[in-house]
Amino acid sequence: MGIGDRAYMRNTIPFRSGLSASAIVICFVVGFYLVGLVQDSTRTDLTTWATLPEINPAPWQWFTYALIHYGFWHLLGNALGIWWLGKVVEEYYGEKIFYFTLIGGVILGAFCWWLTGLGGGRLENHILIGISGGVYALMVVALLDRLDETIT
After folding, report:
1. What are phi and psi of 52, to 5 degrees?
2. Which residue in 75, 136, 68, 142 sits closest to 106, CA to CA?
3. In the chain, pLDDT over 70 holds for what percent of residues?
4. Side-chain-side CA neighbours of residue 135 (13 Å)
5. Euclidean distance between CA atoms 145 and 129, whole angstroms
6. Which end of the chain is more exposed for a tag (fewer CB within 10 A), N or C?
7. Burial 22-40 (b: 16+ CB within 10 A, else e)
8. pTM score, two decimals?
């Protein structure tokens, strides 16, 4: 391959359409984190509609709790997981499977939290936040076809 065969020399650079699905999800999560910072500094109530409470959760809260994060390190860990694992899932299986896996992991994580007694029916009102269930689902799907690969 000579220098003339490269895409930038032929003036035919492959078309890249906007942000990846992983980047879009990270933007939403960071946006909600910033809203949470505004909420904390102004002492208003902007994001409690999105958290998943133990007692009488609304139907949308089974999804929206994943957008709320408690601290910077919580946000950073989940964002890095989405970036690395989401990229693998998105490139290998496609954007549709990426979103399906992420949303399925979020719902399954909330359901397991509720079923195990950590949520649902307790006297104290605890809430569930974070997209960690979706990140673990992305990890499982990203590693499905790579069980025999050597990690170096």
Report:
1. -100, 105
2. 136
3. 82
4. 18
5. 30
6. C
7. beebbeebeebbebbeeee
8. 0.79
